[in-house]
Amino acid sequence: MTWLLAAIMDVARMAMAVLEFNVQNSFESKQHASKAKDASFALNEENSVPDTCQEGNVETAAIVPLGDKIPDLSELEFEARSAKDGAWYDVAMFLAHRVLDSGEPEVRVRFAGFGAIEDEWVNVKRAVRQRSLPLEPSECTRIKPGDLVLCFREGKEQALYFDAHVVEVEKKRHDIRGCRCCFLVRYVHDKTMEKVSLRRLCSRPTVPTDPGLGQV
Known about the structure:
Elements: H1 3-46, H2 51-54, E1 78-81, E2 88-99, E3 105-111, E4 120-123, H3 124-127, E5 128-130, E6 133-134, E7 148-154, E8 159-170, E9 182-187, E10 193-197, E11 201-203
Antiparallel strand pairs: 1-2, 1-5, 2-3, 3-4, 6-11, 7-8, 7-11, 8-9, 9-10
C-alpha cells in the first residue's frame, strides 16, 4: 500500500471518528440537558436551594446539529472519479470507508459543489488521488508528449474534467494574452483526440515516494 493510499484511508477513519465522537457527545448532551431540566424543576418546586448553589453544578454541553458532523477536508486536496460519468471532481469530504470482500478499499465521498444526493462509494486505489494542479502560462514547458493530464472537455450540454494523454505539443510565441501553445490530447475514456489550450489543462502532481512503500 502506498503512502497516498494509507493517507486517504487515515482521512476517512478520522472523519468517521469525529462523526462517532460527536454523535456520542450529542447523546450525552441531551441526557445532561434532560437531567438539568428535571433538577431545575425540582428546585423551583421546593424553593429550598439558593440560586447561587444552582449555578456551576449543572453540566452543559453544546449539541451540534447532525448535519455538521463531517469535517471539511477539502484543504487536503484530493479528487475522485465519479462512476456516473467517468469525470474527476474535487473532494469536499470523506464520509466513510469500507473494505470489500475482494479486499479492495473504498471511501464514500462528497464532491465539492454537490449535495448528499450525489455522494458515491469510490475505489481508493483507482478513483481517488491528489488534486491536479492548474498551470500558469509560464509553465507550459512542463507539458511533454506522453504526459498524463487532466483536461477540461467542453461539450454541448456540459463541461467536465477527464484524464488525457498529451500526443503532441505545438509551441507558439507567448503574447500579452499569455501562452498561445496548442496541445493535442487523447482522452483516456473514449480515445478521441482534441487540440486544446494550456488553460484547459491541469498537471498531475509529482508524488514523492518511499522506497519501502512503492510508487503511486
